[in-house]
Amino acid sequence: MSRSTTYKHMIRVAARLFYSGPCPPESQTRGLGVLLLDYLTTVQWVSFKDLAEATKIHPSVLTQALRFLEAGHMVRRLERRERRPVKVSVGYDEEDKEAKEEKERSRSFSVDYYVIDYYRAFDALQVRMATSRGTLKKQAESTTREVYDCPDCGKMYTSEDTLTLVDFDNPSDPTLRCEFCDVELTQRRADSTTMTAEAARRLLRVMDLELAPLKRVMTDLQVYAVPVPDAGELCDWMKSRLAATTTPDIEWEDVA
Questions:
Q1: Do 48 and 90 reside in the same domain of the chain?
Q2: Per-residue model confidence as pLDDT tens digits over 213-224
Q3: Which of 42, 55, 174, 223 is the most buried (most CB within 10 A)?
């Protein structure tokens, strides 16, 4: 098994394959999807604020990009209502403490946390590859239609009409003739159906080459039964984070 056979490597390859353009589309954010997915493979849960500070991305741009990645099942989002812990000064009685707690509770706010859901991402990538390739394959395998014209009367025939135009009394003559003028038909350039099929075949070959690295990684992940990274529940991650925190100012108390 190669050292690159990991789910994190799968995400990085997929990011460059599917998210190297604007994220979301129709925005001036080329490469943003790659940046975010690469960063998210290095952390577990991360808050929107921490993510914005780490990537130096404007909040509104970051929000749109994360929504796009979430819609593609690459990223999972969880919202929590939080507030800072109540700090009670020495000399406060119970009534003052309860009043302060109530006041602080009313100041709670929502915080979005993000994580890569490797289980869903794997399934989503499989579906995306199969759907994209299936559409092109269907177009590539479509029956091409040739078009013929009569130079005299201008009547148009297609390949579906050839059986009615062949002279079965003279099988050695493959010439197609107009059923009205008995003039040899001229074949013109293939119509849009033919061109679409040819273009689809070219795109299919290119797509297979581009998908090969991702398909190879995903196949190895299954063959070698590589464990899927699990970030765990957000509440458990938060508890372990708070337990390791010594600075009171960054401690947060869940109210959801």
A1: yes
A2: 999 999 999 999
A3: 55
